[in-house]
Design a protein that fits this description.
Largest sheet of chain B: 6 strands, mixed
Helix content of chain B: under 10%
Order of helices and strands of chain B: EEEEEEEEEEE
Oligomer: heterodimer
Structural class of chain A: mainly beta
Strand content of chain A: over 45%
Number of helices of chain B: 0
Distance between the termini of chain A: 36 Å
Strand content of chain B: over 45%
Largest interface: A-B, 28 and 24 residues
Number of strands of chain B: 11
Helix content of chain A: under 10%
Radius of gyration of chain B: 14 Å
Shape of chain B: globular
Number of helices of chain A: 0
Shape of chain A: globular
Distance between the termini of chain B: 38 Å
Structural class of chain B: mainly beta
């Protein structure tokens, strides 16, 4: 089944404790992206990647890191989480140069930082 | 700066009624306008999309109306059903530039929580 998977789905952590949220897709998509969803603000892009070893900042990159060492994986790293990073996070992937460019979203990771 | 503004924030409709969600954008370079539907506990999924050279697109009970001169587009859900209860996001995409890295960037609206009462 074609899908984007994220782990963990739920995470409660404390301020300053480094964490990684994994994202993997099995559709051989070049483009991958991370979003955060907050009430009243919609979905805001954190980072994106056009292909392996190619990443760039989105609209709200502060406090986050990403890497793209393999085409299928795009982990999101919070080196020192803070309470304002409490949010619902989504990973998405999309093909480039074929199809409509539709983005396929993972199921989400709900992060709480206390 | 919010480049895509969506309204209303929430909407309650009776079964069988028409649900209308509106979006306005600022950047005339956007080349693709999708709507995503999100059920509780799930990620958003593409519902319907339109390109700016078309004024209307219909898929079943869902219709996008697009007004290029006003820089507005809207989603109409005809004969709304309780199963349509979800959060809806409009979005707009920046086109790919030759050699650029911005392809596929979607700017989303704030979202609309739709509740359809039976």
């Amino acid at each position: 089944e074609a899908q984007v998977t994220q782990n963990p789905r739920y995470l409660i952590t404390v301020t300053g404790k480094k964490l990684t949220v994994t994202c993997s897709q099995n559709m051989n998509h070049e483009y991958m992206s991370w979003y955060r969803q907050d009430p009243g603000l919609g979905l805001r892009q954190i980072y994106y990647s056009m292909n392996v070893e190619v990443t760039d900042k989105g609209d709200v990159p502060e406090g986050y890191k990403v890497s793209r060492k393999e085409k299928r994986n795009f982990p999101l790293i919070l080196e020192s989480p803070s309470p304002n990073q409490t949010s619902l996070y989504f990973c998405a992937s999309s093909p480039i140069d074929r199809g409509t460019g539709e983005q396929y979203f993972g199921p989400g990771t709900r992060l709480t930082v206390t | 700066q919010q480049q895509v503004k969506q309204s209303p924030q929430s909407l309650i409709v009776q079964k069988g009624g028409i649900s209308i969600i509106n979006c306005a954008y600022e950047n005339t370079a956007f080349d693709y306008f999708p709507w995503y539907q999100q059920f509780p506990g799930k990620g958003p999924a593409l519902l319907i999309a339109i390109r700016p050279d078309v004024s209307e697109k219909k898929e079943g009970r869902f219709t996008i109306s697009f007004n290029k001169s006003a820089k507005q587009f809207s989603l109409h859900i005809m004969d709304s059903q309780p199963g349509d209860s979800a959060t809806y996001f409009c979005a707009a995409r920046i086109p790919r530039k030759a050699g650029g890295t911005s392809y596929g960037k979607l700017t989303f609206g704030q979202g609309t929580i739709l509740t359809v009462h039976p």
